[in-house]
Amino acid sequence: MLTIRPVTKSDSKAIADIYRPYVEETVVSFETVAPTADVMSARIEEISNHYPYLVAEIDGEVAGYSYSHAWKERAAYAGTLESTVYINHKFKRQGIGRKLMERLIDECRFMGFDSLIACITADNEASCLLHEALGFTKVSHFKGVGRKFGRILDVVDYQLELKPEVGKGTEIQK
Q1: Which of 52, 68, 114, 134 could make an S-S bridge to 166, C-beta 3.0–4.6 Å?
Q2: Is 45 contained in some domain?
Q3: 167 in a domain, yes or no?
Q4: Got the DSSP string for 97-165?
Q5: Which domain holds residue 48?
């Protein structure tokens, strides 16, 4: 049975274990050294203190995670977050990523954020398709901005507006 819940620091090792193959074996992540459980614990604490950070469990095992974090540092961008989702390889293609992202979107919307950005390696077709299915729109394509495993990589950004009035020429109401 699938359960989606807020992250805890005790999830650090499982999250680091899920993320490691993405770093070490794929171009999905642009990190080149997989973070340890301790590093992941510090990241979890920093992010979850301010933004939604969710874990999917199946029968007590962490099957995936999703979180949002600041997209840019400038104050004017405070309403826009970047979203992230990773699934344990043994649980892929079971709809867990979609369920995590749907819940993350709901949490971000509930917290009053305006927009989500997903920054995706252009070759990551599964992630692009997931985000399109969730209503995200491709808004940019950066050519040759990453290098990993001897490859030059493109990055695409997808955006989901959480508040329809923002960006449509209307004033933000306080």
Answers
A1: 114
A2: yes
A3: no
A4: HHHHHHHHHHHHHHTT--EEEEEEETT-HHHHHHHHHTT-EEEEEEEEEEEETTEEEEEEEEEEESSTT
A5: 2-161
**CATH assignment at residue 49:** 3.40.630.30
Average model confidence (pLDDT) for the chain?
A: 92
Query: Total structural domains in the chain?
Result: 1
Determine, yes or no, domain membership for 173. no
- Bridge partners of 86, per DSSP, are 65
Q: Are strands 115-121 and 80-87 parallel, antiparallel or unpaired?
A: parallel
Q: Is residue 169 part of a domain?
A: no
How confident is the model over 99-111, as pLDDT tens digits? 999 999 999 999 9
| Tokens (6 digits) for 166 | 């923002």
**Max CA separation in the chain (angstroms):** 49
Q: Give the tens place of pLDDT for each residue, 45-103.
A: 999 999 999 999 999 999 999 999 999 989 999 999 999 999 999 999 999 999 999 99
**Owner of token pair 């999917």:** 56
Q: Is the dihedral of CA 97, 100, 162, 41 positive or negative?
A: negative
Separation of alpha carbons 156 and 160, rounded Å: 14
